[in-house]
Amino acid sequence: MRHSFCLTTLLCAAAAPVLAATVQVQMQDGAGKALPDAVVYLESKDAQAAVKPLIGAEVAQANKQFDPQVRVVTVGTAVQFPNHDTVRHQVYSFSDTKKFELKLYAGTTAAPVVFDKPGIAVLGCNIHDNMVAWIIVVPTPYFGRSGPDGKVSLDNLPPGNYRLRTWHTHLPVGTLALDQALNVPATGATVAVRMAGLAP
What is the pTM of this model? Predict the structure, then answer.
């Protein structure tokens, strides 16, 4: 009878739903207006342990521009750099997050680049100085970008203590992601983040 009780208890524990919360973030500029295209992510030790490389990530070149201009990837992700233009490009980054240079190429022959540590990598092209893009490498599976209304929803979060980090291309050059502590209860959380000092 005792063994039967223990087995029933274990089965009930296994069937219990895993708690998952949602964090709603409202991004604002210095005047309190909705701020679209901000990068938002939540870090913790558990999040870092759960992170996996993304599959199929790429930053293309088209019409002598990077597409997309901002790409968020997880640590360990290999990023492809296909060239859809009829001219050749030479993609590079001198950022500490990832230094690399892809010699002049056309088409999709350039080898993928593995982004193996967190941070912000600024991309350029040695042939076309007007081309610029950013790859944000995050050590967490919980990330997103704010929509036209400035809102972003991070779902399926285990409740706990996190660091909420936010970044935008209009922050001063070299600015790291803004950082604040955030406790996420099982019921979820709503938070507003105001970014001052953004360039026009």
Answer: 0.87
Q: How far from chain centre, in Å, is Cα 85?
A: 27
Domains present along the chain, CATH in parentheses: 20-45+142-200 (2.60.40.10), 52-138 (2.60.40.420)
- 93-122 pLDDT, tens digit each: 999 999 999 988 877 766 899 999 999 999
d(CA 58, CA 81): 6
The torsion angles phi and psi of 172, rounded to 5 degrees, stand at -55, 145
CB 168 within 8 A of CB 198: yes
- pLDDT, one tens digit per residue, over 129-182 is 889 999 999 999 999 999 999 999 999 999 999 999 999 999 998 899 999 999
Beta bridge partners of 77: 115
